[in-house]
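Batch manifest line 128
LIGAND: protoporphyrin IX containing FE
JOB: complex structure
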Amino acid sequence: MTLFSVYPVIKGLHLGFVAITVTLFLSRGLWTLVQGTPPAGRWARVLPHANDTLLLASGLGLAYLSGYWSQPWLMAKLGGIVLYIGLGLLALRPGSPRAQRAGAFAAALVVLAYVIAVALAKQVLPGT
Ligand code: HEM
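JOB STATUS: finished
ARTIFACT:
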Protein backbone atom coordinates (compact mmCIF):
# COMPACT_ATOMS: atom_id res chain seq x y z
CA MET A 1 0.00 0.00 0.00
CA THR A 2 1.49 3.37 -0.97
CA LEU A 3 1.24 6.68 0.82
CA PHE A 4 -1.22 7.87 -1.82
CA SER A 5 -3.66 5.07 -1.21
CA VAL A 6 -3.52 5.19 2.60
CA TYR A 7 -3.81 8.99 3.06
CA PRO A 8 -7.43 9.36 1.84
CA VAL A 9 -8.42 6.43 4.05
CA ILE A 10 -6.92 8.06 7.18
CA LYS A 11 -8.54 11.38 6.20
CA GLY A 12 -11.92 9.66 5.80
CA LEU A 13 -11.52 8.05 9.23
CA HIS A 14 -10.46 11.43 10.73
CA LEU A 15 -13.65 13.03 9.38
CA GLY A 16 -15.72 10.16 10.77
CA PHE A 17 -14.16 10.61 14.23
CA VAL A 18 -14.84 14.38 13.96
CA ALA A 19 -18.54 13.70 13.27
CA ILE A 20 -18.73 11.30 16.25
CA THR A 21 -16.94 13.72 18.60
CA VAL A 22 -19.30 16.59 17.66
CA THR A 23 -22.38 14.35 18.13
CA LEU A 24 -21.18 12.99 21.49
CA PHE A 25 -20.17 16.41 22.85
CA LEU A 26 -23.50 17.97 21.82
CA SER A 27 -25.45 15.12 23.46
CA ARG A 28 -23.41 15.11 26.67
CA GLY A 29 -23.46 18.92 26.95
CA LEU A 30 -27.22 19.20 26.38
CA TRP A 31 -27.88 16.29 28.76
CA THR A 32 -25.77 17.95 31.47
CA LEU A 33 -27.64 21.25 31.04
CA VAL A 34 -31.07 19.60 31.25
CA GLN A 35 -30.38 16.94 33.91
CA GLY A 36 -27.85 18.86 36.02
CA THR A 37 -25.28 16.02 35.96
CA PRO A 38 -23.37 14.45 33.08
CA PRO A 39 -24.76 11.18 31.67
CA ALA A 40 -23.38 8.22 33.60
CA GLY A 41 -24.06 5.49 31.02
CA ARG A 42 -21.26 3.43 29.57
CA TRP A 43 -21.62 5.20 26.17
CA ALA A 44 -20.84 8.54 27.83
CA ARG A 45 -17.89 7.29 29.87
CA VAL A 46 -16.03 5.05 27.41
CA LEU A 47 -17.02 6.07 23.88
CA PRO A 48 -15.83 9.73 23.92
CA HIS A 49 -12.37 8.75 25.19
CA ALA A 50 -11.96 5.91 22.72
CA ASN A 51 -13.12 8.14 19.85
CA ASP A 52 -10.98 11.12 20.89
CA THR A 53 -7.90 8.89 21.08
CA LEU A 54 -8.57 7.73 17.50
CA LEU A 55 -9.28 11.34 16.40
CA LEU A 56 -5.93 12.46 17.83
CA ALA A 57 -4.06 9.47 16.36
CA SER A 58 -5.55 9.95 12.87
CA GLY A 59 -4.82 13.71 13.05
CA LEU A 60 -1.21 13.06 14.03
CA GLY A 61 -0.93 10.55 11.16
CA LEU A 62 -2.29 13.12 8.68
CA ALA A 63 0.03 15.84 10.01
CA TYR A 64 3.03 13.53 9.71
CA LEU A 65 2.22 12.20 6.23
CA SER A 66 1.11 15.51 4.72
CA GLY A 67 4.02 17.61 5.97
CA TYR A 68 1.53 20.21 7.31
CA TRP A 69 3.39 19.99 10.64
CA SER A 70 5.03 23.40 10.69
CA GLN A 71 2.06 25.25 9.20
CA PRO A 72 0.63 28.07 11.35
CA TRP A 73 -2.97 26.92 10.75
CA LEU A 74 -2.20 23.53 12.29
CA MET A 75 -0.65 25.21 15.36
CA ALA A 76 -3.76 27.42 15.64
CA LYS A 77 -5.92 24.31 15.31
CA LEU A 78 -4.03 22.50 18.08
CA GLY A 79 -4.29 25.58 20.33
CA GLY A 80 -8.03 25.64 19.66
CA ILE A 81 -8.31 21.94 20.52
CA VAL A 82 -6.54 22.45 23.88
CA LEU A 83 -8.94 25.32 24.67
CA TYR A 84 -11.93 23.21 23.54
CA ILE A 85 -10.87 20.36 25.87
CA GLY A 86 -10.56 22.76 28.83
CA LEU A 87 -13.96 24.35 28.16
CA GLY A 88 -15.47 20.90 27.59
CA LEU A 89 -14.24 19.73 31.00
CA LEU A 90 -15.83 22.82 32.64
CA ALA A 91 -19.08 22.29 30.71
CA LEU A 92 -19.40 18.68 31.87
CA ARG A 93 -18.19 19.15 35.45
CA PRO A 94 -20.78 17.83 37.87
CA GLY A 95 -21.81 20.12 40.68
CA SER A 96 -20.60 23.40 39.20
CA PRO A 97 -23.13 26.25 38.82
CA ARG A 98 -25.52 25.85 35.91
CA ALA A 99 -24.67 29.26 34.43
CA GLN A 100 -20.98 28.39 34.43
CA ARG A 101 -21.63 25.07 32.69
CA ALA A 102 -23.88 26.72 30.09
CA GLY A 103 -21.30 29.44 29.38
CA ALA A 104 -18.48 26.91 29.06
CA PHE A 105 -20.63 24.72 26.77
CA ALA A 106 -21.47 27.65 24.45
CA ALA A 107 -17.81 28.79 24.38
CA ALA A 108 -16.63 25.21 23.67
CA LEU A 109 -19.01 25.01 20.68
CA VAL A 110 -17.69 28.32 19.30
CA VAL A 111 -14.08 27.11 19.66
CA LEU A 112 -14.99 23.75 18.05
CA ALA A 113 -16.54 25.60 15.09
CA TYR A 114 -13.31 27.63 14.80
CA VAL A 115 -11.21 24.41 14.84
CA ILE A 116 -13.32 22.93 12.02
CA ALA A 117 -13.23 26.19 10.01
CA VAL A 118 -9.42 26.38 10.38
CA ALA A 119 -9.08 22.75 9.23
CA LEU A 120 -11.26 23.35 6.16
CA ALA A 121 -9.69 26.70 5.16
CA LYS A 122 -6.15 25.80 6.29
CA GLN A 123 -5.84 29.40 7.47
CA VAL A 124 -5.40 30.81 10.99
CA LEU A 125 -8.21 33.28 10.30
CA PRO A 126 -10.68 31.46 8.03
CA GLY A 127 -12.49 33.69 5.56
CA THR A 128 -9.75 36.32 5.33
C1 HEM B 1 -11.41 18.31 17.84
C2 HEM B 1 -10.47 17.80 17.10
C3 HEM B 1 -10.37 17.90 15.60
C4 HEM B 1 -11.30 18.35 14.69
C5 HEM B 1 -12.71 18.89 14.95
C6 HEM B 1 -10.69 18.23 13.36
C7 HEM B 1 -11.31 18.57 12.17
C8 HEM B 1 -10.78 18.38 10.91
C9 HEM B 1 -11.48 18.54 9.66
C10 HEM B 1 -12.97 18.96 9.53
C11 HEM B 1 -10.61 18.27 8.66
C12 HEM B 1 -10.92 18.22 7.16
C13 HEM B 1 -10.36 19.36 6.36
C14 HEM B 1 -10.65 19.17 4.87
O1 HEM B 1 -11.50 18.35 4.49
O2 HEM B 1 -10.03 19.86 4.08
C15 HEM B 1 -9.33 17.97 9.27
C16 HEM B 1 -8.17 17.71 8.57
C17 HEM B 1 -6.92 17.60 9.16
N1 HEM B 1 -6.67 17.43 10.52
FE1 HEM B 1 -8.03 17.50 11.99
N2 HEM B 1 -9.40 17.73 13.51
C18 HEM B 1 -9.17 17.52 14.85
C19 HEM B 1 -8.00 17.05 15.42
C20 HEM B 1 -6.78 17.01 14.75
C21 HEM B 1 -5.49 16.80 15.39
C22 HEM B 1 -5.27 16.57 16.88
C23 HEM B 1 -4.54 16.87 14.38
C24 HEM B 1 -3.05 16.73 14.42
C25 HEM B 1 -2.26 16.80 15.41
C26 HEM B 1 -5.24 17.10 13.13
C27 HEM B 1 -4.64 17.23 11.90
C28 HEM B 1 -5.30 17.38 10.69
C29 HEM B 1 -4.63 17.50 9.40
C30 HEM B 1 -3.11 17.49 9.13
C31 HEM B 1 -5.65 17.66 8.43
C32 HEM B 1 -5.47 17.92 6.93
C33 HEM B 1 -5.85 16.76 6.08
C34 HEM B 1 -5.90 17.21 4.61
O3 HEM B 1 -6.67 18.12 4.27
O4 HEM B 1 -5.17 16.62 3.82
N3 HEM B 1 -6.60 17.17 13.39
N4 HEM B 1 -9.46 18.02 10.64
